[in-house]
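Renewal narrative, Specific Aim 1. Our central claim is that a sequence can be written position by position from structural information alone. The example that follows is taken directly from our test logs and has not been curated for this report. It begins with the structure tokens describing the chain, in the order in which they were read.
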């Protein structure tokens, strides 16, 4: 028993201390590995600090000079924006490719009088001359006009008002191809003639580039080449509307006192039907609702309203803007209600020499002998000799 108890006493605290495993220090190999990792960490931290400073400096330059990809993106975006702007602008400034439309005169005149209030155009604009032909039907002198216009595309536009029953058949190469506007019957000496002229102006006003408007007939010809005509019209300070006070029966004798107060006898004027006006005056003619009723109601046949309506109205409104003469030469020396008509036998160099001689007029308030740019009346038979002489006499 005593031996058992002694054995049991060995299981006490002293025995436990004698059986616990002894303390072992960390192996040297592991310690070296830990120290190596610590050293690598320190070195890596130092490298990162310098790298951050370097990249921070680079970001400053990057913010000042965008990358090529960034620049290309902005360039593409700017191009797209510009394209959209041009697309929107074109809906306003692009002239109709087809002159046919269903508008009546009231709708047509209303639409034509849309006027920009800012004079400076936010796009490139080449001012054009609108050549407006008021014709009964065919244009027998069209080949001469085609020759006149050739090579000057972009500086002119053409409009034709003829009998609504007439359907022209111009070749695609002609400047008159598909240039007929929706027309109505126009009778000589009546208000329907002025309606046709206003209709031509209104259709021509749809093209924002048309700056000057010339009224011609199928019997008119150009007396100079296009460059001379363009320069003469574009550099003029005045519009060419004949307007004068004629005291006899063919002037004041046509006045009706019922036109008061809009038009008095002292304001009554007469002038050639064939005119040239700038865009501002064209709008005035188309938008008029004050003088139109007076001339329609009181300038009946025998009054010849087309000789009085526009000259009187514009003289009342803007007298200083008128040259008080026409650009279209006409021979009234033979007398009668109509001017002289010239045919094949009349056309030669001597004819044009006499035509140009003796003319004197004012151009930009200076006296000159260059007074006419167009002439009438010429019969269809005059076409061939005109074509033969055009390069020598007319300059085209």
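The sequence written for that structure reads:
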């Amino acid at each position: 028993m005593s031996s058992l108890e002694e054995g049991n006493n060995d299981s006490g605290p002293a025995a436990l201390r004698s059986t616990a495993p002894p303390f072992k220090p960390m192996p040297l190999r592991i310690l070296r590995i830990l120290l190596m990792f610590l050293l690598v960490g320190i070195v890596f931290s130092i490298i990162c600090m310098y790298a951050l400073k370097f990249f921070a400096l680079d970001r400053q330059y990057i913010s000042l000079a965008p990358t090529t990809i960034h620049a290309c993106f902005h360039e593409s975006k700017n191009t797209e924006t510009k394209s959209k702007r041009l697309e929107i602008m074109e809906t306003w400034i692009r002239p109709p490719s087809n002159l046919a439309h269903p508008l009546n005169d009231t709708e047509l005149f209303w639409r034509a009088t849309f006027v920009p209030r800012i004079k400076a155009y936010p796009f490139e604009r080449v001012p054009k001359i609108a050549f407006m032909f008021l014709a009964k039907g065919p244009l027998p002198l069209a080949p001469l006009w085609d020759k006149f216009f050739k090579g000057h595309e972009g500086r002119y536009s053409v409009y034709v008002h003829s009998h609504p029953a007439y359907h022209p058949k111009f070749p695609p190469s002609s400047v008159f191809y598909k240039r007929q506007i929706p027309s109505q019957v126009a009778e000589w000496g009546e208000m329907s003639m002025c309606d046709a002229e206003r209709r031509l102006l209104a259709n021509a006003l749809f093209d924002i580039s048309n700056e000057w408007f010339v009224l011609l007939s199928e019997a008119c010809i150009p007396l100079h080449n296009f460059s001379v005509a363009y320069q003469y019209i574009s550099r003029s300070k005045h519009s060419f509307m004949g307007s004068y006070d004629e005291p006899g029966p063919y002037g004041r004798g046509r006045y009706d006192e019922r036109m008061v107060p809009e038009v008095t006898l002292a304001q009554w004027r007469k002038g050639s039907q064939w005119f040239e006006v700038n865009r501002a005056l064209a709008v005035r003619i188309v938008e008029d609702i004050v003088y139109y009723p007076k001339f329609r109601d009181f300038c009946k046949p025998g009054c010849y309203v087309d000789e009085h309506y526009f000259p009187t109205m514009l003289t009342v409104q803007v007298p200083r803007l008128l040259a008080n003469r026409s650009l279209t030469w006409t021979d009234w020396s033979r007398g009668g209600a109509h001017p002289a008509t010239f045919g094949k036998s009349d056309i030669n160099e001597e004819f044009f020499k006499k035509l140009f001689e003796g003319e004197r007029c004012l151009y930009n308030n200076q006296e000159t002998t260059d007074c006419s740019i167009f002439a009438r009346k010429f019969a269809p038979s005059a076409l061939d000799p005109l074509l033969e002489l055009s390069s020598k006499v007319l300059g085209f």
